[in-house]
Design goal:
The protein has 314 residues and is of the alpha/beta class. 37% of the residues lie in helices and 18% in strands. It contains twelve helices and twelve strands. Bound molecules: beta-D-ribofuranose and calcium ion.
């Protein structure tokens, strides 16, 4: 079986942590490295969090720290959702897993340049690292198989009425990535708000009874509480793992090609992903936008992914 090669660029973050768990061990995926950016918390926190997650489940994948803030605007964090560490909830043992010395942007550049164009770049945080890599070394663009991002929305935002966090946190970076000319799949709030992690889902995963499922349950205890406080939902939307799950089963999402433009100029709607759902502009599509998700299948993929940690590492 041909594995899908990917780089996961993230800002853990509770849902990023689940994306890492899903990507690190799945037999259909070949995770080449984890690159980290400031987003849900400062870079210092997010890079530590990525290592804490891997250490918890005994995975030794390389973690590279990238950009400590967005390209142009002021840094935005999401401590209201993810807490003061970015991964509040679980009690992690002292961190022993080391950070790679190489900068994340350089790792992305040389990994893509050395490839045959088969690497998918998944981003589940602000798109700063990938955008900077594209600006620093434009020859990587043709080597990107596809960009799959969690971000944006063709309906409502989650930080402002118009904007979703990952795009708002670095809209200029998102603009660079969306206009780079490679295929791009936008997994936005429109679908990720359909995968609400209700208490019965947490119980179902907890029953698996291995380190990954214990971590999942501890993460969701915090994440679901803050999501309820802020949005009033009984279950937190498990945004980021939808990207990885869609690589495991490309049938998971219903995609609609649309012309997508990032709003960089407006005051009220800065960071909005303007998706021409109805084709008003008569412009060519620039992204495949997720418009629906098979929710039951998603939870099956999550369960299957967590169960992999019951087995000895292949
Ligand atoms: C996105 O923002 C972050 O808080 C989450 O990790 C996710 O990537 C959802 O808007
Ligand atoms: Ca994230």
């Amino acid at each position: 079986m041909e594995k899908t090669k990917l780089i996961l660029d993230c800002d853990p973050g509770h849902d990023d942590a689940v994306a890492i768990l899903l990507a690190a061990r799945h037999p259909k995926l070949d995770l080449l490295g984890i690159t980290v950016v400031a987003g849900n918390q400062t870079l210092e926190n997010t890079q530590q969090n990525a290592r804490k997650v891997l250490q918890w489940v005994g995975e030794d994948l390389p973690v590279y720290a990238g950009c400590p803030g967005p390209l142009v605007r002021q840094k935005l964090i999401a401590a209201d959702i993810h807490g003061s560490t970015g991964l509040d909830g679980p009690v992690f043992p002292p961190l022993t897993k080391e950070l790679e010395a190489e900068h994340a942007v350089h790792f992305i550049i040389h990994t893509l340049l050395d490839s045959d164009g088969e690497i998918t770049v998944v981003t589940t945080g602000p798109m700063t690292n990938l955008a900077l890599a594209i600006r620093l070394e434009p020859r990587i663009v043709e080597k990107i198989h596809r960009i799959v991002l969690m971000g944006g929305s063709y309906t409502n935002g989650n930080v402002t009425p118009a904007a979703e966090f990952n795009i708002l946190a670095d809209a200029e970076a998102a603009h660079i990535c969306f206009t780079c000319g490679r295929p791009i799949t936008m997994v936005g709030l429109d679908v990720t708000r359909k995968v609400l992690c209700y208490p019965e889902i947490v119980e179902r995963m907890k029953r698996i009874g291995n380190p990954a499922s214990e971590l999942f349950a501890a993460l969701m205890a915090h994440f679901c509480r803050t999501q309820k406080e802020i949005f009033g939902w009984e279950g937190g939307p498990l945004h980021d793992p939808v990207t990885v799950a869609s690589l495991i089963d490309p049938q998971l999402l219903t995609l609609k090609p649309m012309n997508v433009q990032i709003d960089l100029r407006s005051t009220q709607s800065y960071g909005r992903t303007n998706c021409d759902y109805f084709g008003y502009l008569q412009l060519p599509p620039t992204a495949d936008v997720a418009v629906d998700i098979d929710v039951e299948h998603f939870w099956d993929i999550i369960e299957e992914g967590l169960r992999l940690y019951s087995e000895d590492k292949p």
